[in-house]
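go over both lines:
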Amino acid sequence: VSTMNAKNSSGGEEEASGMRNETLGENGFLGEIKRGQVIRVAYVVAALDLTFLFMHMGVMPYLAKSLGLDSVGFGYLQTIFGVLQLVGGYIFGRFADQFGARAALILSCASASVFFLLLSLSSSIPLLFLSRLPGVFMHGIPGAQKVITDMTTPSQRAGALGKLGLCFGVGIIAGSAVGGVLSTKFGVYVPTYVGLVGSLINTLIAMVWIPSQTKPKSDHRITEHSNLFSIREILRLMKFPGVMEVFMVKVFAGLPIGLFMIMFSIISMDFFGLEAVESGYLMSYFGVLQMVVQGLVVGKLANHCTEMTLLRLSVFVFAGVGLGMALMRTVWHYCIIAVPLVFAFSMLATITDSILTKAVPSSDTGAMLGICASVQPLTRTVGPTIGGVLYKRFGVSSFGYLQLMVNLGLFVYLLKSKIPLGEMKSQ
């Protein structure tokens, strides 16, 4: 098995072992065809998981309203779910490192089954809040990312992770459409029944088609740091060369647009004047853009450019998107801005995940993916308060100006700083 040429000086024997295990190559423990099949199964599981999730998100406001929950209570419900996802992301990643990607993916799918079961039985507001609890382990995308990370070489990783965006697009389009049709024709509880059955099927798919071992035996082990949640462990990972810098870029570059998206349901009604059906069409448009960008653009660029170049590009495009958002006045302006927005968002998520998983030992990739997965729940937790203040006091343009200033600052930082990364591209 060939080894990577560049090794960080502080990594020592543990990192060198991780690099050797990551490079599965032609002589890996699984054949190339077998690895490809497992990766495709991970895509299927992720697509189904997202479909059921977006199906639930579309009908959740109506279900909550039917139980007598007001807008303030619904906000609390969303905040609780965000906090559970935030806390559970890192725990889930550590679980994946200690028990394997297959066990983690099964845990996510089984948790989704319990989630939909409780939701289908929610005949009162306390039961509705209780149904949020399994959300702490519902991390289908990080589970699929862990499988893909184990099954690919570092040079293949960005392209393989990028294709998960196709699953995201499928989830938005199929989940929103199916959830709307089922709830309109058969009632608001029917999508939860479909989600329950579908999640059980997803669990079986993961159990049957994902191998119990997704990386070499010498690397499939419980680390000496065995606690599922430890601040010390998070700090240890952040001390690896380049990890803290890239993670901070990941958090701050996407924060302003994350605040905007949290407030989008209100903005679409008040600022754009859209009806519910028109908002659904706009979400479908985003789903199609996501599929095109992730399926046709991200992977090809990853094959020809270094990851640091793509990271700088995504931040620069984000700055341009901020200027466009500050100047937009109609929904048609937003549809135009959505193209570079989806590109920058997809590129930033894919490239930072790829960089960060390669910057830590392979025995810690699950924990690193869990930390990355906690970024969006963190935004959903603090976003409603911050986004509400920005929108009420300064209007929609404030999100654009914040986006522009933050990403211009990050772009200058990335140009001047020398983050110690192994610059690689697929051959």
Remarks:
- The first helix runs from residue 12 to 22.
- The radius of gyration is 21 Å.
